[in-house]
TrEMBL record:
<protein>
    <submittedName>
        <fullName>Vitamin B12 transporter BtuB</fullName>
    </submittedName>
</protein>
<keyword id="KW-0732">Signal</keyword>
<dbReference type="InterPro" id="IPR036942">
    <property type="entry name" value="Beta-barrel_TonB_sf"/>
</dbReference>
<keyword id="KW-0798">TonB box</keyword>
<keyword id="KW-0812">Transmembrane</keyword>
<feature type="signal peptide">
    <location>
        <begin position="1"/>
        <end position="22"/>
    </location>
</feature>
<feature type="domain" description="TonB-dependent receptor plug">
    <location>
        <begin position="119"/>
        <end position="225"/>
    </location>
</feature>
<dbReference type="Pfam" id="PF00593">
    <property type="entry name" value="TonB_dep_Rec_b-barrel"/>
</dbReference>
<dbReference type="InterPro" id="IPR037066">
    <property type="entry name" value="Plug_dom_sf"/>
</dbReference>
<comment type="similarity">
    <text>Belongs to the TonB-dependent receptor family.</text>
</comment>
<keyword id="KW-0472">Membrane</keyword>
<dbReference type="InterPro" id="IPR012910">
    <property type="entry name" value="Plug_dom"/>
</dbReference>
<dbReference type="InterPro" id="IPR000531">
    <property type="entry name" value="Beta-barrel_TonB"/>
</dbReference>
<keyword id="KW-0675">Receptor</keyword>
<dbReference type="Pfam" id="PF07715">
    <property type="entry name" value="Plug"/>
</dbReference>
<dbReference type="Pfam" id="PF13715">
    <property type="entry name" value="CarbopepD_reg_2"/>
</dbReference>
<feature type="domain" description="TonB-dependent receptor-like beta-barrel">
    <location>
        <begin position="374"/>
        <end position="894"/>
    </location>
</feature>
Length: 923
């Protein structure tokens, strides 16, 4: 820690030494539209390599102070970016021409420095401010689904998770999301909650997506890719902006609940003073009714598929909770408890509150300090091992950054406060334990409720209860359910509220007040080295865990976890800028794991200005999340134990246990001998050698190696073509394995199984553990993605992309590999015209993907089919210049086909909206 804090301090000192005083000259000029020759307001004019800049007023006028000569950069959404060298302070005039924004954009995420998207060394996609304005989706984040290679999973109206290149999940800890350089994950959850805690559309300047491993530059979380979202700078985007959006969903959703409204209100204000100080504030509030998870398919794995269904006494229905509790009753068969529907347990009134403020102060024309604060609060449903209600979840961020033209140093903190969240499945099970009566009519305690319910069921079914028809499952269930509290009743609501407030195994509530602190910096030495471009940086992060002992062993303890990393990148252009080589390397370590080096190498060959071929070798790794390392949860018959060595000290679970498979074989053979009358010690001795000592390593990082080739070309300045092929190999996937521990040593000194330990495993001294570890199996994937964008006459634009991905499990054990959860094929087509007339525009987006099997912990990794589906989004916008307002009418999934994107998650239908967008500068 001290070493890397020293490194960051050194970077800061070097950066400060570069600041020199130079004589400034006041320059001014006008910006006009090239076609209409009307003044352009709101255009950004900045000095390349400095923090100096200005925004044009209503007359297209700008003024700024800078030393001469200087290179001015002029940009505005919808126009081509211009650079011009200015040598004198004479009155300047620039004409902006309309831009086809996808064809030659500037990106920063691929190499951490500005570069043309055409010459990016790896695959990268970008959605800029204009595309955000034009997206027909309900918001920019939903519109990301139209990027090639990207998969999206909906768990809630307010929570959608994204992923690239396979191994998709509803809580993706393999994918990094940055907002203005800040990791957007709540540290206790271990993954970003989509855009529930991200910026509102009204403040988003761009979003850049890297599909595939990006660990060489961004560290362990960027294992499967990353999304880098940049908000609007307070200097460049000034004035008042506001949006009001009214929508409706749940139209013809198959229930009798009717359509539901959605409201989304946002306001942004930014102001700059003398090109020295600027601030911005944002506030937004969304409220709506969540999608219903109401699939009642019987998925009981212990019932033959042909016997499942509504008449199965042991049915386990997908979105009914409490019926997972089941027993096989003698001479009756498998019977499950009567559960509660999710709609009676969940919180379907969801919302999202976002408050943001930023302060910018330019110390010199090369040095700027920024403070940014975010407060977010919201409710969403999340499909994990259970359906969780992330309820009134607060997420607070602070960032302080010092940046210059060739360096930055930033520190930030993320704090989560979750005191009202809960587990709906646990809630259903616990409510079922509050009202059960014994055969005498007395309500029993919760610890006896399940057993008593099954006793009542068996008694009624076997005819032991007067007046009850025997051998009838319906009457037996009705008798066992006597006294059951019904949804909506006072007793139900009271029990529900109490159990949500009760945390740990005796309730459904979830407490997490975890946080993280992060410091990082980077310096670009290119101007000093000159022979080649060189960037060096590093970071330090510390997690602070606080779940009150409900999830981690952190009650009355200061449980923390530290990690740090350093990276360097060098690039060199040869052969008159036609060939560019880039090499990167990053070293990361965590206090609980060995250090990891991740290299990346790439080459871009540009035979002409508009044709670019690329090849790259990339590596990535993923450290275990804090939950993977530190979970310590005693759930009765088994202890769930994270894989950090410090987490299992004193438990002897990794060191002195047997595999659960060998224990099963031993116990079965022992029982058979006992049934023959063999004495206990002899039965143990006869079968103890069936036990196999486990060899479970402590958890370590997952790894990936990836090779990619691609081409990106611009033809006749109207057609952009992009294609790539990649091949990736994955090893050391994190898995769970179950072992049985004895108190005595499993093996004797001679290596044979200890009879005393074998005997203990048959009794109360046996303890089962679910351990976090890694599998040695190796798998590979390969894929191709291609995209075309064509600029048609009169501002029409047509674009399309397609992605194919293939998963090769090879000889790996499927139980040791995370679920791939990715369609083989997906494609998108977008057609639109932002300027059909001076005031009218439209956009249509179509998404399609093939069917695939979804495996998830929600269904105990039993597969469920995600059917092939397509989505059609559309919008029409009308500009009212006199009011500086755009009216937008549109809809997501306008055909209203209810589709499921992850098995067990809700079906998503159409969302239709109308919005008013006011912009003081009317960009």
């Amino acid at each position: 820690m001290k070493k890397h804090l020293l490194l960051l301090s050194l970077l800061l000192c070097i950066a400060c030494l570069q600041v020199t005083l130079a004589q400034s000259t006041k320059i001014q000029g006008h910006i006009f539209d090239n076609e209409s020759q009307k003044p352009v307001s709101g255009a950004s004019v900045s000095v390349k390599g400095k923090n100096t800049g200005a925004v044009t007023n209503a007359d297209g006028l700008f003024e700024l102070n800078t030393s001469l000569p200087a290179t001015l950069v002029i940009s505005l959404v919808g126009y081509a970016r211009q650079e011009a060298v200015v040598a004198s302070a004479e009155n300047l005039r620039f004409n902006l021409v309309p831009a086809i924004e996808e064809l030659n954009q500037v990106v920063v995420t691929a190499s951490r420095v500005e570069e043309s998207i055409l010459r990016s060394p790896v695959s990268i996609e970008k959605m800029d401010a204009r595309a955000i304005q034009q997206t027909p989706s309900a918001n920019f984040y939903d519109g990301l689904i139209n990027m090639k290679s990207l998969d999206m999973v909906t768990s809630s109206l307010t929570y959608k998770q994204i992923n690239t290149r396979g191994f998709n999940t509803t809580g993706n800890s393999r994918f990094l999301q940055l907002v203005d350089g800040v990791d957007n994950q709540p540290s206790g959850l271990g993954f970003a909650m989509g855009n529930l805690f991200g910026p509102h559309d009204i403040d988003v300047e761009s979003a850049e997506l890297i599909p595939g491993a990006a660990s060489a530059l961004y560290g362990p979380i960027a294992f499967n890719g990353m999304l880098n979202t940049r908000t609007k700078n307070a200097f460049e985007y000034q004035g008042l902006s506001a949006q009001t959006k009214f929508g409706v969903n749940h139209i013809n959703d198959g229930t009798d609940l009717g359509a539901k409204p959605m409201y989304d209100l946002a306001v942004r204000y930014a102001k700059a003073f003398n090109n020295k100080f600027a601030f911005k504030v944002n506030a937004s509030y969304l409220k709506g009714t969540d999608w219903y998870a109401n699939d009642y398919t019987d998925i009981d794995p212990n019932t033959l598929a042909a016997n499942r269904g509504p008449n199965n006494p042991g049915k386990n229905q997908l979105n009914i909770y409490g019926d997972e509790v089941a027993q096989t009753l003698p001479e009756i068969g498998r019977v499950s408890r009567t559960g509660y529907e999710e709609k009676d347990l969940a919180t379907y009134g969801v919302y999202s509150l976002k408050l943001n403020a930023a302060l910018h102060y330019r110390i010199t024309d090369k040095l700027e300090v920024i403070y940014q604060g975010n407060f977010n609060q919201g409710t969403a449903q999340y499909t994990g091992s259970n359906r969780f209600v992330i309820n009134d979840f607060k997420f607070i961020q602070h960032k302080l950054e010092l940046k210059g033209s060739n360096f930055y140093v930033r520190g930030y903190s993320n704090q989560e406060i979750s005191t009202n969240s809960y587990n709906t499945r646990a809630l259903g099970q616990h409510i079922n334990r509050t009202w059960v009566k014994d055969l005498n009519g007395a309500t029993v305690s919760p610890d006896k409720a399940d057993a008593t319910w099954f006793e009542r069921y068996a008694a009624a079914y076997n005819g032991a209860v007067t007046g009850i028809i025997n051998k009838d499952h319906n009457t037996a269930r009705s008798f066992a359910d006597e006294g059951r509290i019904l949804p909506g009743s006072d007793a139900f609501n009271s029990s529900k509220d109490l159990l949500i407030k009760t945390r740990g195994l005796s309730g459904a509530g979830i407490l997490s007040e975890c946080s993280l602190r992060h410091v990082e910096g980077m310096y670009d030495f290119s101007s000093a080295v000159k022979v080649f471009n060189l960037q060096i940086g590093g970071n330090y992060r510390k997690y602070y865990l606080d779940t009150g002992g409900t999830l981690f062993d952190d009650k009355d303890k200061n449980l923390t976890n530290e990690e740090y990393g350093v990276f360097a990148q060098a690039s060199k252009s040869l052969w008159k800028e036609r060939l560019k080589f880039t090499v990167s390397g990053r070293y990361d370590t965590n206090e609980n794991f060995d250090g990891r080096f991740t290299p990346r190498a790439s080459a871009v060959f540009s035979p002409t200005e508009n044709h670019h071929f690329r090849a790259s070798y990339q590596t990535g790794f993923r450290n275990p999340t804090v939950a993977d390392q530190f979970i310590k949860l005693n759930v009765g018959p088994i202890i769930i134990l994270g894989g950090a060595p410090v987490n299992s000290q004193g438990l002897n679970a990794y060191e002195n246990s047997v595999t659960i498979a060998s224990f099963g074989a031993f116990a079965g053979a022992f029982g058979a001998d006992m049934a023959k009358g063999t004495p206990f010690p002899q039965a143990v001795a006869n079968n103890k050698d069936k036990l196999v000592k486990s060899n479970v390593p402590y958890i370590k990082s997952e790894k990936v190696k990836s090779f990619e080739i691609g081409y990106k070309g611009l033809i006749s300045k109207k057609l952009l073509f992009d294609v790539n092929y990649y091949y990736s190999q994955y090893t050391d996937f994190m898995i769970n394995t179950v072992v049985a521990r004895a108190k005595s040593d499993i093996l004797l000194a001679n290596g044979s199984v200890n009879p005393a330990a074998a005997a203990e495993l048959l009794g109360a001294d046996r303890q089962l553990f679910q351990l976090y570890t890694n599998a040695a199996d190796q798998v590979s994937i390969q894929g191709v993605s291609a995209g075309v964008t064509y600029s048609l006459p009169r501002n029409f634009k047509l674009s399309g992309n397609a992605t194919w991905i293939d998963f090769n499990i090879g000889e790996a054990d499927q139980n040791n590999i995370p679920a791939f959860n990715t369609p083989e094929w997906k494609s998108n087509v977008i057609f639109g015209n932002p300027r059909l007339t001076d005031k009218l525009g439209f956009n249509i987006a179509w998404h399609w993907q093939t069917a695939f099997e979804w495996y998830g912990t929600f269904t105990e990794n039993n597969p469920g089919k995600v059917q092939a589906y397509n989505l059609l989004d559309a919008q029409v916008s009308y500009r009212i210049p006199s009011l500086k307002t755009t009216v937008k009418v549109g809809g997501s999934n306008i055909t209203n086909k209810y589709i499921v994107q992850a098995y067990g998650s809700p079906a998503v239908g159409g969302l239709y909206y109308v919005s008013l967008n006011f912009d003081q500068l009317f960009r």
